[in-house]
Amino acid sequence: MVNHGMVLSALEKVTDPELHYDIVTLNMVRNVAISGDKVTVDVALTVKGCPLHQKIERDVQEAVGQLPGITTVHVNLDVMNDEERRTAFARAFQQSQKQRASQSAGATRAPTMPGPQGAAWSPLLAEESRTVLLGIASGKGGVGKSTVTANLAVALQRLGFRVGVMDMDIYGYSQGRMLGAQGQAKANADQKVVPWNAHGLSIVSMGMFVTDNQAVVWRGPMLGKMMQQFFTDVAWPDLDYLLIDLPPGTGDVALDVATRLPKASLVIVTTPQVVAQEVAMRTADVARRANQRIIGVIENMSYIPMGSGQRMELFGSGGGQELAHTLSVPLLGQIPMESSVREGGDRGIPVLLSAPESESAATFLQVAQKIDAAAHV
Ligand SMILES: Nc1ncnc2c1ncn2[C@@H]1O[C@H](COP(=O)(O)OP(=O)(O)O)[C@@H](O)[C@H]1O
Ligand SMILES: [Mg+2]
């Protein structure tokens, strides 16, 4: 005879395709009913219209159907309420902490922090803080996420705001180069790291902590720890905006950010290519499940301006618009591909300062205005 515990054990083999934890741990199994050779499982999805619901349903049927004597498995799908969703993410977070602790046993001790508790990290994260936290995310690398971060930072500053940049891309840190800042981290009298200052921006990056060309071999588990230190151990001034250049990737990284910085809104950078758009969609999906707000999509490398309004669409077209449409958020802008953008990044003077008359500079300013209009709603 199959009992309740056996069904739950079987269900522990079913993982959520995006969050990579089993559906029991994730609090997705609401109820299990056994009647003779029939089992009914009520599953609550983290988000309505979850694109992966069919896979979850199939996997549940397969896992439970393998139990001896079970002929029919019926799956009822529903959607979590806010409370259930919070529990789900807290559990996934705890699980990731456990895995980290065991992965790094004997090496660096992983931080053991329960759920979201960012407020203790820094006044910037406190509920009453007016600082807008803006994560700049992309599904994959090379789409121009860091370039967009640097230029948006300058653009928001141009609009009169106090702006900080946190380079959380710990493997591919590049804000020092892009914004022309360098030098080892220096501590103030309170033993806090003083951010780099360049173009009037306060910048903190992994680049402050590694000596020349030293490869950063830290793996994902270190990300949360770095993020915490970039808040607690840095003497951030009062800021209107803190832009966070996030590492590319979906799943764990996005979950980490969403759990630790629930207050942060996201901007998703993609290219016109459909492949880039699909990967970005997965990042966005995790953010949405964590109830993290997505302000909009920025399409980068959209076209090459050919003069007199002519555009050459090198990487196809429509990716940004389609992604924005799928996510029901605005397409904030299409940044053209211009050599001045790349040169600006290489020289440490963002295009907004080095070629303010360029089409990309104008677009970055418009995007910053749209972000500011949306950020306080
Ligand atoms: N709009 C653009 N026009 C020209 N070059 C760009 C543009 N956006 C990014 N690049 C260049 O593409 C490369 C990758 O950009 P980067 O911002 O480092 O991407 P990511 O941070 O997503 O990995 C860099 O050399 C950058 O200068
Ligand atoms: Mg980058």
UniProtKB/TrEMBL annotation:
Which terms in the Gene Ontology molecular function aspect does this entry carry?
4 iron, 4 sulfur cluster binding; ATP binding; ATP hydrolysis activity; ATP-dependent FeS chaperone activity; metal ion binding
Q: Where is this region: Disordered?
A: 93-117
Query: How does it associate, per the subunit comment?
Result: Homodimer.
Regions of compositional bias (Low complexity) in chain numbering: 93-105
Which InterPro entries did the record assign?
A: FSCA_dom_sf, MIP18-like, Mrp-like_CS, Mrp/NBP35_ATP-bd, NUBPL-like, P-loop_NTPase, YlxH/NBP35
Q: Which residues bind ATP?
A: 139-146
Keywords linked to the UniProt accession: ATP-binding, Hydrolase, Iron, Iron-sulfur, Metal-binding, Nucleotide-binding
By its UniProt entry, which Gene3D superfamilies does this protein fall under?
Fe-S cluster assembly (FSCA), P-loop containing nucleotide triphosphate hydrolases
The molecule here is called Iron-sulfur cluster carrier protein
The organism is: Sulfobacillus acidophilus
UniProt keyword annotation of Hydrolase present:
yes
Q: Which Pfam families match?
A: FeS_assembly_P (PF01883), ParA (PF10609)
State the family it belongs to. In the C-terminal section; belongs to the Mrp/NBP35 ATP-binding proteins family. Belongs to the Mrp/NBP35 ATP-binding proteins family.
Function as written in the Swiss-Prot or TrEMBL entry: Binds and transfers iron-sulfur (Fe-S) clusters to target apoproteins. Can hydrolyze ATP.
According to the entry, every stretch annotated as the MIP18 family-like domain falls at 7-75
